[in-house]
Amino acid sequence: MPAKEAAFPSRTAPNVLYFSFRPSIPMSASASPTPGVASSPPAARPANRVRQFWQRVSEGRQLDDLWSQFAADARASYGFYGKEVDWEEIQKLPKWHRPFHVAKDIFWALLMKMTPARRVLLLLALALLVMSGFTFQFGNKVEIQFKFELFAALIFLLLLSLELADKITMKRDLEIAREIQTWLVPSQAPEVAGADIAFATRPQNSVAGDYYDAFYPDPENKERLVVVIADVAGKSVPAALLMATLQASLRTIAGEGVPVAELATRLNRYAAAYSLDGRRFTTAVLCEYEPATRRLTYVNAGHNPPIVRRANGAFESLETGGLPLGIKIGAEYQTATLELRPGDALILFTDGVVEAFNESGEEFGNSRWLGAIRNLPDWNAQETLQLLMKRVDEFVGATRQSDDITCLVFRSK
Questions:
Q1: Contact 264/301 with Cβ under 8 angstroms?
Q2: What is the C-alpha separation between 30 and 261, in angstroms, rounded?
Q3: What pLDDT is attached to residue 1?
């Protein structure tokens, strides 16, 4: 039921037809129900059935919301198949030739992503559509007209059901993988003396290559907190698998009590061994925070520099570090130290935040992100995080997410 109907049940929903029926035979005023006999419930009205069907199909969404979702899906689909188009060659053609060549390239991109058997079925259905409507006349009395629309529609429906079955099976597996991945990141922030932490992540697909964490390597010792954010190159399942190995390695090495410089060096050595000659690298920011002294020591391994917004409004960018993990097995990493004073906010994020784009293809960008951070009220970490994500959402609108988005807020009290 739509929210308005739930809040105001007496109102009539728009775009729904209601009919009033009058009995053809008037009932006697003295007539009364027969004692002990239950009256049968009235049959569901056709309008109510249509309404229930529409609610089930649309999940209660309004037409403008459905259109926005369709437009986002269409843009994402066009972008997906458009990657196969040689746009440089298209630009060399006369303008009136270009639409036909773009349509041809997109068709072939779609066709080659199907199995050979399904390609044949698709071509057969298209051939039947082309042949439909042709009329052959033999003499003056014999006329044969071919109508294959029904057969073509059945083949298209078969192809749709086969592709949908594959998608549902894959989606089920991805949901299981997503559930497993949620076990690898904290669901609640740890308690930190003099500070609070909030984090959020939004995968582009069911699983993500972004990673965030905040934990005490020694649960019995609250004097050293490790805070990390990382982004594995790529998306979806391959990136998620590498993220899982990074999490396991990080937790194991950090448990040995090593400083962040050595932590980065050892993680890089492990990542380089499985990076496919540097093609599967990981950017990361590794931090060590001491609540007693409010001292933060960090190393930035090729990641988007985190931002420290001081209580007086000044900015600091955390850039000290080295190459992304996995690029070069012998890479060296430098560390830097700063103090987080009361009222300061540390914002760690992945590139999906600043690279989020709207329906016009315009990126959110660093300037808008810094502007959102500059205007932060003096709120706690969770409220700060919600406000920052709201700024990104307002810019993006209904455009489908193009990359994993992760943000971690560390506020000093």
A1: yes
A2: 94
A3: 42
| CA torsion through residues 238, 230, 408, 361, sign | negative
Quote the pTM value: 0.67
Q: At 335, which CATH number? A: 3.60.40.10
Measured in residues, the chain has a length of 413
Task: Determine, yes or no, domain membership for 19.
Answer: no
Paired residues of 284 in beta bridges:
230, 302
Cβ–Cβ under 8 Å, residues 357 and 363 = yes
Q: What is the pLDDT of residue 240?
A: 82
* Total of domains in the chain: 2
Q: What is the CA radius of gyration of the chain?
A: 30
129 and 221 share a domain? no
Residue that is last in its domain, among 183, 203, 223: 183
Range of the domain at 173: 118-183
401 by DSSP, 3-state: which?
coil
Task: Based on the fold, state whether residues 172 and 201 are members of the same structural domain.
Answer: no
The per-residue DSSP string of 67-113 comes to HHHHHHHHHHHHHHHHTTS-HHHHHHS-TTTHHHHHHHHHHHHHHHT
Query: What distance in Å separates the CA atoms of residue 236 and residue 240, rounded to the nearest whole number?
Result: 6
Q: What is the pLDDT of residues 188-203, one digit of tens each?
A: 899 999 999 999 998 8
Side chain identity, residue 80: F
If DSSP codes are grouped into helix, strand and coil, which group holds residue 410?
strand
Average pLDDT rounded to a whole number, residues 293-306 = 96
Q: How confident is the model over 78-113, as pLDDT tens digits?
A: 777 777 788 888 888 888 888 888 888 888 888 888
